[in-house]
Structures are given as structure tokens and as C-alpha cells.
Amino acid sequence: MNVAIFTDNDFGKVNGVTTTLTAALDHAPPGMHLRIYTAAVLPVDAPDYLALKSFGVPIPFYGEMDMFVPRLRAYVAQARTEQMDVIHLTTPGPIGLAGMYAAWRLRLPMVGSFHTDLAAYTAVLSGSPRLGALMREYMRWPYGKCARVLVPSEDTRRLLIGAKGHADRIEVWPRGVDTSLFSPDRRSRHLRDTWHVSENRPAILYVGRISREKGLHLLAPIQRRLHALGIEHRFIIAGDGPLLGELRRQMPDAIFTGVLPRQAIADAFASSDVFVFPSRTDTAGNVVLEAQASGVPVVVADEGGPRENMVDGSTGTVCSGDAPDRWSGAIARVLQPGVREPMAATAREYALTRQWAQALQPLYRAYRDVCPVTAPAAGDGMLRVSAGHRL
To answer: Tell me: the pLDDT tens digits for 273-289?
Structure first.
């Protein structure tokens, strides 16, 4: 079976989508060939990755990031040449629409996976609930064409069903984590010394996009409240985004690492004492699993998908609402002597149950379920079957 995965996220980016798709490529079962179809400034043609050279334009409300104008005919020709059996749409953006066009032209079934709640992002970043509602309506179009839609959490499944999605087509595909890369063994005394943190001054980590939809407007008030409570700490903020300058001004004693490569991110996780993720718009939050795999307790919001990737009271805590007092109180409780250590150990044990090999099975099953038995290709006298072999 051959599967073309269309994504607007080229693998030059490190985020939840690229992490997930990389794992899907790495763990693909025998007889199933997956290939990424995307676009970039520079072309790439590798066995499992195709990036067509395309023209980029800034994303509305995300001006520092580009989306690429898809070369529709080139994608269709490539999918035809590679005898694709299934189209996997991971985004309603331009490259996702190219996947939808290829599926229509080649009469192939589509599997959709829902990674980002663009409607919520649009509403937060634009300040317009009306624009958010329009984005929600738009997203029904491409995902409505999919024979199966995979979502990362029950929260997201309820969201899509509430937005008039077909309940019988929507399934949960939970996220996994690489527990060999993200491990407590990577804890670095040298890195902690560089950060000027210790047992008496713990490191509070955030990893991800530095943008308003992540709930990061809470970090500076949380910091002020922790100082008022007399709790020594230092925030470590890894990532980049439009809110970076504002946070730097509001949190002058925090450490801003910028975007880190995967190995350095793993070191940062393991060298921290608690991970804070205040986003209420994320559908999964891979970083929440990565923190726990690193032996770090987590504090997450009570809305969105991340709370489904931890065990409240055991591997961290779920914080309700967005009041800084509640968040600072939750962080303070996790950092208490005799609380953080057992949570850290339990977090690692929990993450070991969330390996990618198991987490990816719903995706591979969806490919098999939708892949049809088709008529013989003209002139070759061979039947294409869902197992991906030629008979």
C-alpha cells in the first residue's frame, strides 16, 4: 500500500505535526510505504519525503510564517506515478487542498487527521469570534471529504461532532512519545548551572510556540505571584513566536533559549523541575508527553487535549480557569518537597505506556480500512489490492 501524506508543515519545522508524522514514517509496518508531500523554498526528493519548490506567502495573523502556493498538477502527476492508494490530508491549508484535489483527480480515498484547531487560533489571534466561526465552517469542507477523520483526543472528537462532523467517521488517534530520546537520564547539571537553577531555585519550563493562543499571557502574572509568595524559581522558555518580545520585556529574569534542536529540547526537559502548558486551544500537546517521559511533572489547562495526556494528581495537575493565582498555586503545590519527586517518577512510568509503536496503530488501521480493491490498471493485467501487493 502506498500512502501520500499531504502537509503544510515542511520538516524544517519542529512542532507536534512534524514530530507525529516523523514517527508515522519511522514505524510504518511492512508492505506500507508512506511518503510526505509538502512544499518549501528549496526542493527535496527523498524516498519518504517530497517537497516541491513553491512560492510562499505570509500566513494571516502568523506573519512570520509562510504558506506555500501548491503546484496542483505536479502533485497529481507525482501521486499517479507513485501509484498512491490513499491520500492522507493533515491540514485544511493549501497543501491539504492539493491533496484533496489529487484524491479527486485520481479517485482515491482520503484519510484526514486533525492536528490544529485553526478556528480557535483564528478567533484568539484576530480577536474576532466571527472569523473563528467562519474558519470552523470552512474546515468542515475538506474534512467532510474524508472517509475517516483521526483526532488526537476525545476533547477534539467532541468538538468536531459538535461542529456537525460525521460521528461515525471520527476516531481518536492518541499521540505517543519517544521515551529513549526523552528520558530523565539526560538531566544535565551543567545546563542547570548555566540556567542558575538548583533544588532551592527550581526551573519552570515552557516549550512551544511563543504566541497568544498558547495562553502565554499568563506567564508574567504567574511569575509575579510566585515571587509574592516567596517561591524562588526561574522560568525557562524555549521556542519562538510573535509574543517573544513582549515576554522578554515582562519577564527580564527568565531565560529564553530560542528554537532548540530535538536533542537540546530533550536536555532542557530533563533538566527542568516542572513543565507548564497553559494552552486551552491545543488538540494534543506532544510536549506534555515529552515532559513526563523526561521525568518532569506537568501543569496543564482544564480545556483542550493536553489534559488527556497526563494523570491529574499523579503525573502532574490540571489547573482550572486562567486566573494567575490558581496557576501559581498549582505550580507551588507540585514543587513542594515530597510531592515533585514521586510525581516525576510516576510521570516517567506513565510515559512508558505511551510508546509511538502502539499509538500509531489507529492510523495504520485507518489506511487499511479505506484502501479499496481497484480494477486492473489498463494494459498491465494486475490487480491493486489493499495489502499493497501486485498479484
So the answer is: 999 999 998 988 899 99
State the residue range of the domain holding 340: 184-351
Co-location of 139 and 249 in the same domain:
no
Based on the domain organization, do 264 and 345 belong to the same domain?
Answer: yes
- E strand map for 219-349: 234-238, 255-258, 274-277, 298-301, 316-319
Under the phi-then-psi rule, with left for phi > 0, alpha for psi from -120 to 50, and beta for the rest, what region is 252? alpha
Q: Same domain, yes or no, for 58 and 167?
A: yes
Q: Is there a domain that residue 164 lies in? A: yes
Cβ-contact 346, 60 below 8 angstroms:
no
Rounded distance, CA 331 to CA 256, Å? 20
Query: Which CATH number belongs to the domain containing residue 202 in this structure?
Result: 3.40.50.2000
Residues 46 and 86 in one domain: yes
Q: Which residues are CB-contacts of 122 (< 8 A; sequence separation ≥ 6)?
A: 61, 128, 131, 132, 134, 135
> In 323-354, which positions are buried (b, 16+ CB within 10 angstroms) versus exposed (e)?
ebebbbbbbbebbeeeebeebbebbbebbeeb
The CA R_g of the chain, rounded to the nearest whole Å, is: 22
Kindly report, residue by residue over 51-88, the tens digit of the pLDDT.
999 877 766 655 556 678 889 999 999 999 999 999 99
Task: Give dist(CA 331, CA 131) in Å, integer.
Answer: 34
Other Cβ atoms closer than 10 A to 382: 11
Residues 280 and 216: beta-carbon distance below 8 Å: no
Q: Model pTM greater than 0.85?
A: yes
Residue 379 belongs to some domain of the structure? no
The string of pLDDT tens digits covering residues 326-362 is 999 999 999 998 999 999 999 999 999 999 999 999 9
Same domain, 20 and 154: yes
CA neighbours closer than 13 Å in the CB half-sphere of residue 170 = 21
